[in-house]
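Narrative summary of target 7.
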Amino acid sequence: MKYEIILFDVDDTLFDFKMAESHALHNTFAQFGLPQGATEYKSSYDEINSSLWREAEEGHITSAQLRVERFKRLFTVHGLDFNPDAFSTAYLRYLGEGAFLMDGAIELCNVLSDCRLAIITNGIKEVQTSRIQLSPLRDVFEQVIISEEVGCQKPQAGIFDYAFTKLAISNKSKVLMVGDSLTSDIQGGNKYGIDTCWFNPSRKTNTSGIQPTYEITSLMELPNSVLSKRLVLNRTSAEIR
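Modeled conformation, tokenized:
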């Protein structure tokens, strides 16, 4: 098999971040006495949050700043009298409970038992660590590389340098980066010189100019189409439960 090490993104690749986010926003607004807030302000929050994460990818803001700034901006726009620091703390606690997996995530990791698997994620340390530890995938990954710990985000080369050092990788041709984001996962992998696989379950049209090595619309296409059937398709021991 060509690839020996698979680097996975977390959010909306192996873990259902949209579900986790919905859970966290609903519970946080409810805690602050505005149970309809998650529905009423979701669109505005998405716009603000996405903009700030793009700034983080470009190195203009840290995740520590982002975690509060997104709520500060949201409350300013809508005239809400909440403390953004307190709101952020509650939101991150609920977000850390969101260990919801994407369809096929467990089956995929079972199939890839002969590969070295690792996580490389843009995110907040306590949230990502909690979600992974609460999931059936908690013992699957050799390394969990989180941007907040490293000090830089995908697509920056520094986070890939860090991952390659931690995993003692010397041959880039043996590594595949799998993720749902063209701008962070795919662009980052491309620029670093490793092959990439774009997970595109919504079948979005790629107008970015960023070209992945492969594209899949379901997780189980990865072993079946990308990695070839020479993989062992069933674990005989220590299956993920």
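The longest helix spans residues 42-57.
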